[in-house]
Amino acid sequence: MKLAIDGMGGDNAPKAVVEGVLLALDEFPNIEIQLYGNQRELQPLLKEHSRLQVIHCEEVVEAEDDPARAVRRKKDSSMARMLEAVNEGRADACLSAGNTGALMAGGLFKVGRIEGVSRPALATTLPTIDGKGFLMLDLGANADAKPENLVQYAIMGNIYAKKVRGIDNPRIGLLNIGTEEKKGNDLTKSVFGLLKEADLNFVGNVEARDLLDNVADVVVTDGFTGNMVLKTIEGTAGALMSMIKDVFMASGKTKIGALLVKGEMKGLKSKLDYSEHGGAALFGLQAPVVKAHGSSNARAIYNAIRQASIMVEHNVTDVIKTTIADNPVQQ
């Protein structure tokens, strides 16, 4: 399979992107990578590889660029050229750690939406206490949503959980302010009824405080709420690790304790580390488009590449197409 990668996107590009690409090429013999970016900056970081092709681009979509304008006007940017490769069938999937809005806009304009999908959703796997994790969507592709949008998110999330995460009968939860059926606003009340009737393993409403307790395998919500929950979890995880470090560094006695539990603390950090869970996938497009975290290191890029390759290998997009066509949601 062929993967197109934006070599210039992200806070640590191009170095982290190149390192992640080389890790993936060593680990996955079935992938070929097209790396888009400024060859003058990329080449000193690379080593020769038969399954790696560098495509020179003069422009870069910057973090502060207006999303729609950036993709439309910066036609020779690494992100735009990467998306075009997918659109033209020269690559099976693509990923970038760059401007999220531009990638979502470019995904819609250049890769295109699956027929029958009203709105694509941004989804990623978040950590749980037991280490299994859960998929959550939408995480910000659409601030506003209608009931039918969330039902489609559930259908697409269900397919991903089965095909990529290997869960036979994923539990689908609806994020709400209480577990009772009648709780919530007009949106969640409407969605609850629709999900009850859908051919899904719907376990009902789930509360934000229970998400890390593995109450569901797939959690659906609108993009406004989902983005706030995502950033709250990320911020809390970072703050927690910082507070634990401060406690261990407080005195000679606690420093000795830190040495004794060093291995266990690394395990905890790994559980909470976004880089171990790949990127956020845009569900509902004609091909896999993966958004790696803006601050991705080499390990995070490697895991995002792994995620994209699994989506291609298991034909996630084709399964979504078929399932949506067979289960149209009333618009």
TrEMBL record:
Domain of life, per lineage: Bacteria
Class of this enzyme: transferase
Catalytically driven reaction(s): a fatty acyl-[ACP] + phosphate = an acyl phosphate + holo-[ACP]
GO cellular component: cytoplasm
The protein's role, per its UniProt record: Catalyzes the reversible formation of acyl-phosphate (acyl-PO(4)) from acyl-[acyl-carrier-protein] (acyl-ACP). This enzyme utilizes acyl-ACP as fatty acyl donor, but not acyl-CoA.
Subunit structure, interactors included: Homodimer. Probably interacts with PlsY.
Protein name: Phosphate acyltransferase
UniProt source species: Ureibacillus endophyticus
